[in-house]
Amino acid sequence: MLTSPNFWMGLAGLVYLIAGLLLFRKEIGTARGWDKLIALAPIFIAVSLAVFAPEHFRGPEFVLDSVPSYMPWRPFWMYFVGCALIAAATSFTARKLVRVSSALLGVMFLLFVCMIFLPGAFSDPKDRFGWAFVLRDLSFSAGAWALAAVHNRATFPRKSQWITVVARMAIAIAAIYYGVAQILHPEFVPGVALEKIMPAWVPLHGVLGYPAGTILLFAGLALILNQRARAAAAAIGAVMTALTLYPYLFMLIHALGGPAADITEGLNYVADTLLYAGSALALASALPRWQDRLAKTM
To answer: Which of 17, 26, 215, 248 has the fewest CB atoms below 10 angstroms from its CB?
Structure first.
């Protein structure tokens, strides 16, 4: 058991979750309304990165296969990414060097988009799941840069503003795409539109897709139009947080004791959904409150 990547993935996630809640307890405790959820953004991102990291050290073969064939020393890059994920998770949790780590994390996810997922999407443009992967990692990149914008706002206000605009558009497009896909194909698991049919044993399995897809669609449109954008980003974060707990954590618990591949899949779905939630909440933290914007125009 101690040699299982699944064990270390779960342990890493729990350690960073507990550490994050302890270190951010003051901010969470004093926040009100949406801000209480928004304050969890760095914790959600750190926990997800920590869950992904052990796969890169002794994980399934698909991790190594994800490294492009033209890259030299392919195993090195797998280990390098694992170290980078742990470093970023530690930085966000300890709140040290966050400006640098969030910016570099955004670059890394953007490289994944350009080097891994875009070529796959272009090879079969009609495959909606290929574009779902592109938009997923683009959203992860946007969330990391939104976090960098928050920490650079005092020093580089104009630069941070433009970064936030780009992050808002990236997450908005993904939310609209996922929302439409979910409404048209409710039989698939909700949230990030990936290639997995919702198991029939999950309670309400035929119902979850419609409300989740509707919220993502309208929140994405609000982000595109920049109308109540902060609340819209927080709404995306809220629905993805809810989906992390149900059905994905529920599905992970159900998979425990079964084949290792099913547990790995369950851990990845939990971390994927939580990371998307954290990215949307990081964007919300970078966006101005609508009351503040209204005051500036008066």
So the answer is: 26
